[in-house]
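Weekly sync, protein design subgroup
Attendees: M.S., D.O., the rotation student, P.L. (late)

Item 1: inverse folding check
M.S. brought a backbone from last month's batch and wanted to see whether the design step gives back something sensible before we order anything. D.O. pointed out we never logged the input encoding, so this time it goes straight into the notes. Structure tokens as presented (271 positions):
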């Protein structure tokens, strides 16, 4: 079972890129972020023609998340608990082939300090609280998405010019560390502990051309799913396409029995 996460940065303007990636890489499940489109503008027909069911929660011009799947998904949750007044479309949960898949778009938080950074930290606290109810679930769980956090200095090409960015703040990183401390496995870093891996390259200052990237898109596996981790990687070729998103899809391949019960992890595979 291959599960991917991809910040498309506008599903209407990047639809051709998305469809090409789906055709070439064939993920079983794809978590999408930053749809930047209302529910009525979601390209359901095009994705159905590509062989995917879809659940989505849109929002005009900002945010928006979706879960695409080869098998039909059962929606579990459409928002992150903890703040009934939060109307941002940032979280979606679905059951697919025995795996609970959570798709998230965590707030960016810039500029910091300020209200946007405060909102980011509040949202992160809500995520930590909800994740605590999922981590020891007997069923496999993956929380995938754009976390807008660079976990360590090893996850960025050069941290010096980003020190004041919300993605690198100590409070942001501490939240991510607390999340992992619950028992979640950071899949990419688990398989590649000593290799620089990036998922985001800014449009400015030739970041892509210089491979000046950041790792901010993560797939976290609970203990029921982590032993099934067989491979992981980043489809960097997507970032080099014309009119590309500034993110590239990250993915995991899971060796599961009947796509539900974990088995022993297979040999490691390069990204």
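Designed sequence read out in the meeting:
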């Amino acid at each position: 079972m291959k599960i991917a996460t991809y910040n498309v940065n506008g599903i209407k303007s990047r639809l051709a890129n998305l469809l090409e990636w789906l055709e070439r890489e064939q993920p079983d499940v794809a978590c999408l972020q930053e749809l930047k489109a209302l529910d009525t503008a979601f390209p359901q027909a095009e994705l159905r023609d590509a062989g995917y069911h879809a659940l989505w929660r849109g929002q005009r011009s900002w945010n928006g998340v979706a879960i695409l799947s080869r098998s039909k998904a059962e929606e579990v949750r459409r928002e992150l608990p903890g703040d009934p007044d939060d109307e941002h479309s940032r979280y979606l949960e679905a059951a697919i082939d025995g795996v609970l898949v959570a798709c998230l778009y965590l707030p960016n938080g810039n500029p910091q300090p300020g209200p946007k950074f405060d909102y980011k930290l509040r949202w992160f606290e809500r995520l930590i609280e909800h994740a605590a109810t999922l981590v020891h679930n007997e069923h496999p769980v993956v929380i995938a998405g754009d976390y807008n956090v660079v976990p360590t200095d090893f996850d960025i090409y050069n941290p010096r010019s980003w020190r004041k960015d919300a993605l690198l703040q100590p409070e942001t990183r501490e939240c991510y560390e607390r999340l992992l401390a619950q028992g979640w496995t950071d899949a990419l870093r688990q398989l590649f502990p000593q290799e620089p891996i990036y998922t985001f390259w800014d449009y400015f200052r030739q970041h892509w051309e210089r491979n000046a990237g950041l790792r901010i898109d993560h797939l976290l596996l609970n203990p029921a799913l982590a032993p099934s981790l067989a491979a992981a990687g980043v489809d960097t070729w997507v970032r080099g396409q014309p009119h590309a998103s500034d993110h590239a899809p990250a993915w995991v391949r899971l060796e599961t029995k009947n796509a539900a019960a974990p088995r022993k992890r297979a040999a490691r595979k390069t990204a």
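Discussion: The two ends are 16 Å apart (CA to CA). DSSP finds five helices and 14 strands in the chain.
Action: P.L. to compare against the previous round before Friday.
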